[in-house]
Design goal:
Distance between the termini: 23 Å
Order of helices and strands: HEEHEHEHHHEEHHHHHHEHEEHHEHHHHH
Number of strands: 10
Strand content: 5-15%
Largest sheet: 7 strands, mixed
Structural class: alpha+beta
């Protein structure tokens, strides 16, 4: 999952202090990062961000492994998660025994393979179990080491509030809603109509649509496959940027992942969110139980796309690498991926999970019993990988998203913001 907000200087300072404090705490209490408990059990720590759907799975694993106790450390925001992990790795202590690596940051971490356990030595070759491109992306550049086991992929849809659509006189049936926006231009028209009828914005922020559209348009994005920064000449980046700028008039201008964004789900600040499968759990968490049945899932404009997805890795600093690797294998096996999908929405990358009838038939009760297994699973095996490059996340989150937000806030003209984004992209790449 990719994320950054344009912060005030004070907020940035607070975030930095929090990250340093988190790292210091981990370094001062080494047993928190695994090892053994007071009663002699093996302790494993799982670090993740967002919603992976592991709560019940971890309980199941501990029940069948009475000699192991597992602690989850969840971080809400990826832009808090990554700096802390960087500090843990630099310090040689503090990281979880199993850590999640999102698609935008895994290439950067793979550049230091000595920090990571070769999972094959503990769980063998599992390549036949997963989408081949997803499994291969967890390997080192030369393919000699497997540093991450695949969790999910990021099939796209649009999540919408059917009650707010009804108030606006728009269709509420998911098939009819899908017909409203076969293209992004049609989507913008719906947004204008919604705003005219309600006085409110249709979408949260244009940065989510920017991320979705880029993946639909395909390579190259910020990098070519030789790791040259090509953001300034990429038709996918410019195409997504131009379309995002057009959407500003239908945006609530609420920075994604901010506190205002989280609160906006309950305040009806927006009615539609670009919705990779992993976003389902985040929407449910932010919206709360009172909004159950008010959300639904429709098709994404412009056809399919693949935004997001992660891997589970084991740092070499783990005191129990064998047990950690076996836990990672359990959390990413077919049955576990189906259970995680039903719990929080991450779309399986395990081939048996995608073929599982329980997955295919699953309807999400929070999202008006939307057949999310069918919606997200239909094109899962045909999803195409997009090469992201070593500093993809930093370029998107620190160059392009802040630039788009500056346009949303009326601070900078689009042309100047584009120039600023390109300059910052080059800086981040270095």
């Amino acid at each position: 999952m990719s994320v950054t907000q344009r912060r005030t200087r004070k907020a940035a300072a607070v975030a930095l202090v929090a990250a340093v404090a988190l790292s210091a705490a981990a370094c001062s209490k080494k047993d928190e990062s695994g090892g053994t408990t007071a009663d002699g059990k093996i302790k494993l720590v799982v670090d993740s961000f967002g919603e992976f759907g592991y709560d019940e799975l971890i309980k199941t694993y501990m029940a069948s492994h009475p000699n192991i106790t597992i602690e989850q450390r969840k971080t809400t925001k990826l832009d808090d998660y990554k700096p802390a992990l960087v500090k843990y790795l630099a310090a040689g202590t503090g990281a979880g025994d199993v850590v999640a690596l999102e698609e935008g940051i895994i290439n950067e971490f793979k550049a230091q393979p000595d920090n990571w356990v070769d999972l094959k030595q503990y769980v063998g070759d599992l390549s036949a179990d997963y989408l081949s491109w997803k499994y291969d992306a967890g390997k080192t550049a030369d393919g000699s080491k497997l540093l991450g086991l695949p969790t999910d992929v990021g099939g796209l849809a649009m999540c919408y509030r059917n009650d707010l659509f009804k108030k606006a006189g728009l269709p509420t049936d998911r098939d009819e809603v899908s017909k409203l926006w076969p293209t992004w231009d049609k989507f913008i028209e719906v947004g204008k109509d919604y705003k005219a009828k309600t006085g409110k914005a249709l979408i949260d922020s244009v940065t989510t649509e920017f991320s979705a559209i880029m993946t639909q348009l395909g390579e190259p994005l910020f990098y070519d496959r030789q790791n040259n920064v090509v953001a300034g000449t990429s038709q996918s980046v410019k195409g997504a940027w131009d379309k995002a700028v057009q959407m500003i008039e239908i945006s609530s201008k609420t920075a994604t992942w901010s506190d205002d964004w989280s609160a906006g789900f309950k305040k009806d600040t927006f009615a539609v969110v670009a919705c990779p499968s992993w976003m389902l759990g985040i929407i449910e968490t932010n919206s709360g139980p009172d909004n159950k049945g008010k959300w639904d899932v429709a098709a994404v404009p412009g056809g399919g796309g693949n935004w997001g997805g992660s891997w589970l890795s084991v740092p070499t600093q783990s005191k129990n690498p064998k047990e950690a690797a076996e836990l990672a294998a359990f959390l990413t096996n077919a049955d576990s991926q189906v259970a995680a999908f039903k719990a929080k929405g991450p779309l399986p990358s395990n081939l048996k999970a995608l073929d599982n009838p329980d997955f295919q038939a699953y309807k999400n009760p929070y999202f008006s019993d939307a057949p999310v297994g069918a919606i997200f699973g239909a094109g899962a095996k045909t999803l195409q990988p997009v090469y992201l490059g070593p500093k993809h996340a930093a370029i998107k989150e620190r160059a392009f998203e802040p630039a788009l937000q500056s346009i949303e806030q009326g601070k900078v003209a689009p042309d100047k913001a584009w120039t600023t984004a390109l300059a910052e992209a080059e800086k981040q790449a270095k």
